[in-house]
Amino acid sequence: MENDHPPQQLSIGKLAEATGASVRSIRHYDDQGLLRSSRSSNGYRTFPAEAITQVKQIQRMIATGFSLADIQAFPDCMRLIEGATSCTEASEVQRKRLLSIERQIADLEKRRVRLIKTLSEGVIPAVDE
C-alpha cells in the first residue's frame, strides 16, 4: 500500500493525537491561518511535523486567556516556537489581557462577597454594598 503523502507530513488525526487537540480545533486553527496545511491527493489536510509545536503553543496561549485573533496578531517568534518567551511586540497585548483578567477577578470577588452576605443574612444586599 502506497502512502498518500510524504512521511514528514501528518494527517489531521495524527496531529490531534500528538497534541491532544481535537480535530475540530485543528481545522479551526488552520482555517484561521494559524497553521499551514496542504492537501493530499485524496483531498485530506496534511500538516508539517512542526505543526505539533505550533498547536501546543496555540493551546498554551489560549489557556493564558488569549483569543485566536490575539494569537494571529502575535509575531511568529511566539506562535511558531513551543514555549517561546514573550516578544516585545506582544507585551502590550499581554498587559491588556492581564488587566482584563484582574478586572474579572475583582468583579468575581465582589459577587462572591455579596453571595456570602446573602447566604449569611438571608437577604440580597443592595448593589452599592
What report would you give on this structure?
It is a single chain. The chain has helices at residues 12-19, 23-31, 51-63, 68-73, 76-79, 91-121; strands spanning 9-11, 38-39, 45-48. It has 6 helices and 3 strands. β2 (38-39) and β3 (45-48) form a beta hairpin. The protein is elongated. With 129 residues, it is mostly helical. It has a 3-stranded antiparallel sheet. The termini are far apart. The chain has 2 domains: 1-85, Multidrug-efflux Transporter Regulator, Chain: A, Domain 2 (Orthogonal Bundle), CATH 1.10.1660; 88-129, no CATH class. The longest helix is centred in the C-terminal third of the chain and has 31 residues, at 91-121.
Q: What shape does the CA trace take? A: elongated
Largest sheet: 3 strands, antiparallel
Radius of gyration: 21 Å
Query: How many angstroms does the end-to-end distance come to?
Result: 72 Å
Strand neighbour order, sheet with most strands: 1-3-2
CATH architecture descriptor text of the largest domain: Orthogonal Bundle
Bin the helical content.
Answer: 55-70%
- CATH domain class name of the largest domain: Mainly Alpha
Domain unit count? 2
Q: How many helices in DSSP terms? A: 6
Mean of residue pLDDT values: 84
Element string (H = helix, E = strand): EHHEEHHHH
CATH topology of the largest domain: Multidrug-efflux Transporter Regulator, Chain: A, Domain 2
Main traits of this protein?
mainly alpha, 7% strand, 6 helices, 129 residues, Multidrug-efflux Transporter Regulator, Chain: A, Domain 2
